[in-house]
Write a sequence for this structure.
């Protein structure tokens, strides 16, 4: 069903595209800007891995900066083809955790995602305040709706962490254990010192993500400001994260067409921006595919340390 949704939305967008114009954009592209976008996205993965490690440390999950970045890169790579955007998150939680810490690892990923999205929304409002004239009211309204949706999710998450004892009593015994472990991890990750440090890294990380998309726009000569992209990306990301498509394809392109159309960007340029941005993300995440082929350093160490183990 997700494949059909992605295919259907891409087909609906395709009928509005001028393929000749798209071919000209690509053939005349400034690919130095594209290389810059790929490099910037790879830098965001490294920064995001360092940021996530702070949550892992708060949850008492033993790891190193290298292992956290490795798991993050593998998650980014697998996100290219797993259904929805949660597949890569589950992958990185599995890679970095061990039996007994799975629930805590998944909890850190959820907190990492939610706080990163909050940083993205904050960057959007900062960009809007810096350049309000470039952003029409309809886009401000879309950003407001995205902010409201995020606020509702955060309030629900806080209520689940702080209370919800009635919910816990209705769950099976094993699920109650997972819930208690998740709540304990969330409380440790939500300490002010942890949130302050991750917020600084999160703002830098999300600002670079928007910059990478602006580089992509420059590479195909699409005239759009940083502030417009900053305002458009949060609602697009929230909608494309819904579990109705394959990795957000189709939903993301349609959302870009609708929102960027408000600033005079036609469907051809909006779709091309989304697709070329997806290609840049895929290329930047390729190191994660190489790391996926390698045995985890931690697992190699475990193998060597077992009684009777031999070899390098």
């Amino acid at each position: 069903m997700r494949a059909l949704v992605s295919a259907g939305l891409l087909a609906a967008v395709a009928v509005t595209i001028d393929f000749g114009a798209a071919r000209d954009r690509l053939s005349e592209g400034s690919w130095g800007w594209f290389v810059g976008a790929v490099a910037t996205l790879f830098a965001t993965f490294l920064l995001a891995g360092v940021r996530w490690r702070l949550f892992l440390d708060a949850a008492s999950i033993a790891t190193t900066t290298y292992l956290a970045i490795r798991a993050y890169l593998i998650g980014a790579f697998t996100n290219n083809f797993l259904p929805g955007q949660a597949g890569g998150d589950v992958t990185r939680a599995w890679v970095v955790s061990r039996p007994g810490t799975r629930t805590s690892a998944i909890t850190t990923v959820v907190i990492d995602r939610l706080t990163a999205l909050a940083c993205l929304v904050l960057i959007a409002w900062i960009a809007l305040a810096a350049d309000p004239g470039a952003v029409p009211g309809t886009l401000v309204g879309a950003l407001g709706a995205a902010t409201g949706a995020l606020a509702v999710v955060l309030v629900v998450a806080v209520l689940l962490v702080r209370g919800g004892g009635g919910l816990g009593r209705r769950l099976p015994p094993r699920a109650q254990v997972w819930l208690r472990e998740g709540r304990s991890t969330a409380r440790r990750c939500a300490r002010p010192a942890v949130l302050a440090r991750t917020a600084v890294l999160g703002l830098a990380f999300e600002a670079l993500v928007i910059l990478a998309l602006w580089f992509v726009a420059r590479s195909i000569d699409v005239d759009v400001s940083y502030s417009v992209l900053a305002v458009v990306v949060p609602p697009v990301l929230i909608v494309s994260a819904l579990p109705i498509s394959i990795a957000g394809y189709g939903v993301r392109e349609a959302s870009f067409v609708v929102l960027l159309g408000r600033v005079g960007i036609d469907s051809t340029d909006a779709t091309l921006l989304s697709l070329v941005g997806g290609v840049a993300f895929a290329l930047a995440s390729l190191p994660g595919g190489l790391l996926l082929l390698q045995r985890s350093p931690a697992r190699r160490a475990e193998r060597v340390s077992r009684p009777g183990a031999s070899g390098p």
Remarks:
- The chain is about 75% helix and 0% strand.
- The chain has a mean pLDDT of 86.
- Residues 2-9+31-293 form one domain.
- The chain has one domain: 2-9+31-293.
